[in-house]
Amino acid sequence: MFHPPVSPEACPALVLNADYRPLSYYPLSLWSWQDTVKAVFLDRVNIISEYDKVVRSPTFEFRLPSVVCLKTYVKPSRNPAFTRFNVFLRDCFTCQYCGTRSDLTFDHVIPRSRGGQTTWENVVAACSPCNLKKGGAMPAEAGMHPNQKPYAPSLSDLHQNGRHFPPNYLHESWLDYLYWDTELEP
C-alpha cells in the first residue's frame, strides 16, 4: 500500500507544562515543527513522544517530536482572555438569539451607541442576520433577548464547553495528556 510522504507542517507538537498538562486546551497548545525543534535545541523542553517523521540536515537526522514538556513551569492565567474565540466558546458557538451555529459574529447586548461596553457581561455570540436585525436597539425595543445572560467565564467553564468541540485533529500520542480532569467512568 502506498503512503504519500508526510510534510513536516502536518506534524505539530502538543506542548505540555512542566506538570504534564497542556498549556492550553482551547485552543490546544500546539507548536509548529520548527518552533519545537528550536525549543529542543535550546534545551527548553523534554521530548515525551515522537512522530515517525524524520527531518535531516547534511550532518544530522532528527525525529520530529509529537509531545514535548516544558522544563520550567508556566503559571496558567487565572482568567481567560476576552477574545472573539472565547466568547464563541462560552456561548457554545451558538447565536444567543436564534440558536443557529452559522455566520457567527458578536453583538453588544446594550449597544455601544447607548453606552454599552465591550466586556464579557455585555457581548454575546450572534449570527449576522440577528445582529443586523437587532442593530442599535436595546433588547426590549428589538424584542430580542439573549438565551443566556452574558458572563465572565472561568477557565473551567471554557474547558467544559470545549469538550463538545474537539480539535479537527488529535494525534494518538496526544491522547494520554488531554482531559486529565475528566471524570472517569466506573
Automatic annotation (TrEMBL):
What is a single Pfam family found in this protein's UniProt entry? HNH_5
Q: Does the keyword Nuclease apply?
A: yes
The molecular function terms of the Gene Ontology recorded here are:
endonuclease activity
Look up the coiled coil feature and give its residue ranges: none
Q: Which InterPro entries match?
A: HNH_5 (IPR029471), HNH_nuc (IPR003615), NA-targeting_endonuclease (IPR052892)
Keywords on record: Endonuclease, Hydrolase, Nuclease
Domain HNH nuclease as annotated: residue spans? 82-132
Task: Supply the name of the protein.
Answer: HNH endonuclease
Q: Which organism's genome codes for this protein?
A: Labrys neptuniae
